Each structure stands twice: as C-alpha cells, then as structure tokens.
C-alpha cells in the first residue's frame, strides 16, 4: 500500500488572518474551533514549553502531524504513535518517507511541501484536522503563527550528534517520556554489545564528501558514530588541533580539499554517504581523488561505508540501529589492521 498523497493546492499571499478566515469558511479549521457554548466540554490540555513559545496540547492527542524530515516521523513511531500525516522528504531522499519506516508509515498521509523542502503546505495541513503539530524549529519558524492557528504546534530542536535530544522533546509533548527512556536505554545497551565485537578498534578517520571537491573530517563532538567509536576505545584521527583546513563550530569537523586528504591517517576509514545521486557523486569525488589510493586504510582495504542520514539521527533510533549494524557488519568483514 502506498501512502496517500494530498494534491498540492495553490497558496496565495494572503495575510495570516485572511488565510485562516478562508480556511474557516471552507470548513478546514474544525479541529481548532471552539464550538457552541452549549456543546461538549473542550478536551483537557496541558501547557508545553518549546523553542518557539508555549502550546496548549491535548492530554491525549489523536491526530498528530510530523512536519519535518529530521526524525519526527520515526520518533513518533518509536514512541508507539502513528501520525495521521507527515511532511514529505521526496526532494531530499527520493521517497516520501525513509525506507526504514515505510511499512510502519503505510497509513500515514504524505503532506506536500509548499515550496522548499521544509515549507509546509498550510491548506494540506488544515485539511487533515490535526490536534497537534510537531516540527523542527528551523523548518517551521516562519510559519509558526499560521500553524498555531490550525492546531497546537510544538517546535523541536535537533542535535545531529544525538537523536535522543529530539526524541525526548517529542516524548515530552506527547506525554510519553517513559517510552523514550526505554528506546534510548535499549539502543545504548545494544550499541555497547555490538561495538564490543570490534575488539581493539585502533585509530579511525570519519569522512563525508559534500560535493564541490570538499570533504568533512569529523571529530567525536560532530558525529554520533565518531562519538560511539571513541566511547568504545577508538582514537579519532586526525585531531582537530593538528589538521589543516577550515574548522566548523567548536571543532565538530574540519573542511578539507583533495590536496589535504593525506591527513586522513586512520587505520580504518568510515565514509559517510548521503542518499541520492548527489551523495554518490560526492563519494566518487572522494574516491577519485589522487591521494585516496595512497591512504593507509585504503591500501589495507579497511574502508567502511555508512548512510549519513541514518548516522545523524534523521531516521530516528530506527536509523541508529541500521547504521550500527552496517558499521559492525562491514567492519568485522575487513582484513586485519
């Protein structure tokens, strides 16, 4: 069964008040109408504080929408919640939802974008009559007021080195903190057991090609996989203090050119790859660079490839499970270092 795809309506430049008035006239704001004074009592709510303000969230929401492509859908599914709709990720990964959760999400309606990959089509959202909207802070900030006019809206910050942060924020909005604790604890136990299969890990370099002849060399503070390996005893090289290139943030990674690839000296190289043609082209740039065949790990055939979106938590803990298995399964199949 394929997910239902809502047709993309034409979005005008009406003000928020005009837009909501139009939706009300069309009967699309049923979920957030107060109803007649003598009607049934409003459902119980609780106040949820989030990065864009506060929201009065139903104690037991039943029509939840995941309005981002950075883990909200997988996180909700992991918490035992099947949303009625989720923002499409078609332009990013080529399919509406990640393959890892496609079966679980078979009854989830695909919410089209309104333009850019993070823009929400407001009419499509309202048509689903949600009682709670959840989305990445940076993706919904400009539309927050309009979204809040449709249903209570909770913004969630994302930490690309630790999916637990957004999972816990979504769990808090849903009142499912215990379920989040169980998901995180189960993964941490499984991670420790699987990485123990690697034995003495040694020195590891973690690289991502981003296109344009540019490569990121990650540190434990910038990559969940680098952090996992470091916690399991690996030495992540090169160290940010010794590598020449353009550092990012507080040393999460360093951006280097092909001429600097000789600094990638790990006994094992973990290559992160993005989904789609652009991601594969970036890997081809990396592996086609003149210095690539000279690297010690390449010569020893100790190179592992993992999915970048899985490793940064965009596919939730389902993605973490998948990337962990890929990492360990490939690693244990390598020759001795």
TrEMBL record:
PROSITE patterns per UniProt? FE_B12_PBP, TAT
Q: Which InterPro entries match?
A: ABC_transptr_periplasmic_BD, Bact_iron-sidero_bind, TAT_signal
Q: Name one GO biological process term.
A: iron coordination entity transport
Could you state one GO cellular component term attached to this entry?
outer membrane-bounded periplasmic space
Name the major location: other
Matching Pfam families, A to Z? Peripla_BP_2
Give the UniProt subcellular location, in the record's own words: Cell envelope
**Residue ranges of the Fe/B12 periplasmic-binding domain?**
64-335
This protein's UniProt keywords: Signal, Transport
Q: Which family does it belong to?
A: Belongs to the bacterial solute-binding protein 8 family.
Which protein are we looking at? Iron complex transport system substrate-binding protein
- In which organism is this protein found? Pseudonocardia kunmingensis
């Amino acid at each position: 069964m394929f997910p239902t795809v809502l047709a993309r309506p034409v979005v005008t430049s009406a003000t928020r008040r005009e837009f909501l008035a139009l939706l009300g006239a069309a009967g699309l704001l049923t979920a957030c109408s107060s109803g007649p004074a003598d009607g049934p009592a409003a459902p119980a709510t609780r106040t949820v504080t989030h990065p864009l303000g506060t929201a009065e969230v139903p104690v037991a929401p039943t029509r939840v929408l995941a309005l981002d492509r950075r883990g909200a859908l997988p996180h909700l599914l992991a918490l035992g919640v099947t949303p009625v709709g989720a923002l499409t990720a078609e332009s990013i990964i080529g399919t509406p939802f990640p393959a890892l959760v496609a079966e679980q999400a078979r009854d989830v309606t695909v919410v089209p974008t309104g333009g850019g990959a993070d823009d929400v089509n407001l009419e499509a959202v309202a048509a689903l009559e949600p009682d709670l909207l959840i989305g990445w802070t940076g993706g919904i900030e400009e539309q927050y007021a309009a979204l809040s006019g449709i249903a209570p809206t909770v913004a969630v910050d994302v930490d690309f080195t630790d999916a637990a942060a957004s999972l816990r924020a979504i769990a808090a909005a849903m009142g499912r903190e215990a379920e989040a604790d169980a998901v995180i604890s189960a993964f941490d136990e499984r991670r420790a057991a699987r990485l123990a299969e690697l034995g003495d890990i040694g020195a590891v370099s973690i690289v991502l090609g981003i296109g344009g002849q540019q490569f990121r060399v990650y540190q434990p503070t910038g990559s969940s996989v680098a952090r996992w390996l470091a916690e399991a005893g690996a030495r992540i090289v090169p160290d940010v203090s010794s590598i020449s290139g353009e550092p990012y943030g507080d040393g999460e990674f360093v951006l280097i050119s092909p001429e600097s690839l000789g600094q990638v000296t790990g006994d094992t190289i973990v290559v992160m790859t993005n989904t789609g043609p652009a991601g594969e082209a970036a890997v081809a740039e990396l592996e086609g660079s003149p210095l690539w065949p000279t690297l010690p790990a390449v010569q020893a055939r100790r190179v592992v490839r993992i999915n970048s979106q899985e490793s940064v938590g965009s596919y939730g803990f389902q993605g973490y499970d998948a990337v962990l298995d890929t990492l360990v399964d490939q690693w244990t199949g390598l020759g001795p270092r």
